[in-house]
From TrEMBL:
Keyword line: Cytoplasm, DNA-binding, Iron, Metal-binding, Repressor, Transcription, Transcription regulation, Zinc
GO terms under biological process: negative regulation of DNA-templated transcription; regulation of secondary metabolite biosynthetic process
Organism: Paucidesulfovibrio gracilis DSM 16080
Protein's cellular compartments: Cytoplasm
A GO term, aspect molecular function: DNA-binding transcription factor activity
Name of the molecule in the record: Ferric uptake regulation protein
InterPro entries reported in the protein's UniProt record: FUR, Fur_C, WH-like_DNA-bd_sf, WH_DNA-bd_sf
Quaternary structure note: Homodimer.
Length: 147
């Protein structure tokens, strides 16, 4: 039976010698409710609607812990910004990222996944996780730039 995301985070904290503080619990709850891709600032704003006393630094530190625990994964948008999304309990996917408008499209392709696994095996690697980001120009931005 798979552990809940909350249990995974709690075990990670315990294994790291940390406690689940009320502030961390609030941030984790808000994080788990958010879907899609979001910036640390967007998470901070969402946390602030629940508990305005939680500071931005606490949100950033907890987001780092969420990433280290495997609950969050990062997405480099190609313009220096980092977005986050759920990394546990969600189906693995890769991304197409538009370099003009920042649009992100989630893609799931079993052929690509099998090829990545095969490449890892051929090179003696045991994959534990991976991310594939494909950068380019989306159709809407291409159409706009052509006119």
């Amino acid at each position: 039976m798979e552990r809940s995301a909350r249990e995974v985070f709690l075990h990670y904290l315990q294994d790291s010698g940390m406690n689940m503080t009320p502030q961390r619990a609030t941030i984790v709850e808000v994080f788990l409710r958010e879907e899609g891709h979001f910036s640390p600032e967007q998470l901070y704003e969402a946390v602030g609607r629940v508990d305005p006393a939680i500071g931005q630094a606490t949100v950033y530190r907890t987001l780092k812990l969420l990433t280290e625990s495997g609950l969050a994964v990062t997405l480099d948008t190609g313009d220096g910004a980092t977005l986050y999304e759920h990394g546990y309990g969600h189906e693995h996917h890769d991304h197409l990222v538009c370099l003009h408008c920042g649009n992100k499209i989630e893609i799931m392709d079993p052929t690509i996944e099998e090829r990545q696994q095969r490449i890892a095996r051929e090179n003696g690697f045991e994959l534990t996780r991976h991310t594939m980001l494909l950068y380019g120009i989306c159709p809407e931005c291409r159409d706009t730039s052509e006119h």
